Prior knowledge:
There is one protein chain. 84% of the residues lie in helices and 0% in strands. By secondary structure, the protein is mainly alpha-helical. α2 (21-40) packs across α3 (42-70), α3 packs across α7 and α6 (133-152) runs antiparallel to α7 (161-186). The protein is globular.
Amino acid sequence: MADPIGKKEFEEAVEKLKGAWGWLVAIGIISIIGGFFCFANPFAATLTVDYIAGFMFIFVGIAQIVQAFSTRESGGFLWTLGVGILSLLVGVVLVGNPIAGAVSLTIVVGVLLFFLGGAKIAYAMSMRPAAGWGWVTASGVLSIILGVIIFSNFPWAAASVLGLFLGVELTFNGVALLLTGFALRKS
């Protein structure tokens, strides 16, 4: 039975990963620094996430509304316009009431951590047996655990735990990327 990926393709993929070790180290360091900022003030980190998400929804909402009017004759105008208006309203609510937005974002981040953890684990399995795959797996497991902790402490988690968990996620992800990058450099 043939392997789903041939030896040559596997070696090429590993070489590409080895070539990216510097990027992995740089992103890891940036992630660790971001994690420390979150630990320094978890409530501010939570509100920062709320504001960033709010402004992104506002930007996407405006872009969607403009796109709806620019392609009005192509069909789906009302759906496109509706999605744009909804995105804009979500952004305005997040920016206008950051505490309520933090509660909503806590739910979203909890769900996101579940999916992010699963994606990391799937990525680690795809890069196995390349050096460092275990660190990526551990990072994925931690993401899933953080999602469970958020939902087990809801709604209290919305005030500051989200900022703390973001710090843990950024720090652990940074360490995983850093160690993976160095392991790939050595191999």
